[in-house]
Amino acid sequence: MCQPYPKLKASRPPPVLRAIKTVLIVDDSAAQRRIVAGFLTGWGLHSLQASSAKAAIRLFKKHRPNIILSDWMMPEMNGLDLCDTLRQITPDLYIYFILLTSRSTKAEMLYAFQQGADDFLSKPIAAIELHARVTAAARLLDTQRKLKLKNRQIKPALRKTQALNAAMDKDLLVAQQLQTALIHNRHRRFGRFDFAALVENAGPVGGDLAGFFTIGATHIGFYIADVSGHDISAAMLTVRIANFFSAEAFGQNIAVQCLKTGQICPRQPHDILQSINQIMLKDVTTDHYLTMISGLLDLTSGRLCFAQAGHPYPILQAKRGMFHHIGRDSLPIGISQAVRYQDHHLQLASGERLILYSDGFSDGVYDQNTALGREGLQPLFASVQHLHGPDLTQNILENIHAAHDQTPLVDDLSALIITHRAAGASGPETSE
Length: 432
What we know:
Elements: E1 23-26, H1 30-42, E2 47-50, H2 53-63, E3 67-71, H3 79-89, E4 96-101, H4 106-114, E5 119-122, H5 127-182, E6 186-190, E7 193-200, E8 208-215, E9 219-227, H6 232-244, E10 256-258, E11 264-266, H7 269-283, E12 290-298, E13 303-309, E14 315-317, E15 323-325, E16 343-347, E17 353-357, H8 359-363, H9 373-382, H10 389-403, E18 413-420, E19 430-431
Parallel strand pairs: 1-2, 1-3, 3-4, 4-5
Antiparallel strand pairs: 6-7, 6-19, 7-18, 8-9, 9-12, 10-11, 12-13, 13-16, 14-15, 14-17, 17-18
Helix pairs in contact: 2-3, 5-6
């Protein structure tokens, strides 16, 4: 024999049912309303009764119950129409709607759920089934209550986060504008020597830079650097490095020394790297470090020297297409006080080209998820051997993007290319 459903004390509902504020019973049968109300009262729940849909709407507007037990078939307005009306009255207030019906086919139940009902009870109402449905409703209502509470707690943090994001976006725009003003693709000819510099950021701002500048009438200083990271702080550090080499303020240009006679003389590349390393370790409060090459070209002799700090080995591209990786590597800047940088000297012959590049070229992910690698750079630069100026840098970028299969870059790109034009190919100094 089945055990009768246990009766509960009416003084206070059990914890699982305390999420229920009020239950509204809607049925044109007074006897049915009394039976359901009796069960609810026995479980410590407060209930209201309505004999019609219109009466139910009035009670709903006044008391805002969160569970509705409604007969499906009623005169004037049926239970599903009532459900739709109540949900329109309070679209922001979730109500749990249970249909009371003698219908029990799967098609009818599916239709009821499609029209907005949450559950149903078959008549005659059994206490154990009613309790199960009401308990399920209570659990859902309690979950919704907790979510609303969490949302109220999260909103202030969300507003703060949005404000911080807005401030970061503003800082990002400023950093981007500064980088654009100081670091951009440049092309220039000095007698028989062509300089081409390019910087392509993987994101709105980046940590790569490359540039060159005149020192008096006979020397060209140049540099390329790659700051660790791609965030705003990395971008601002590139701006600071670029300012070290500002050609507009020789008194502050780290690559220039002014003699007592007033004569302007270039500093040696290794000495420049040494000075930047000391500044980084002393003044820069950041975890960033940077790889770098600083160099100097004598226009009168064609002699060139450079110093390397953790940066990829430059490529010497000979006139007949031979490639050689050259240099004297050392630790990146911002790592150690004890590091000592050394100069590498070479004579850049007519028709030769020196290529400085960041590891975004060699380590970037290309077709089939493979890196181009150091050896893979040779065909890339061989394909543009005959080009100069904007055509050179534009073609390099097009080839890189094609190799990436048009997917976004994962690392910044920078390159500085110095070409000694063959005799008869030189022209007047140009700037672009």
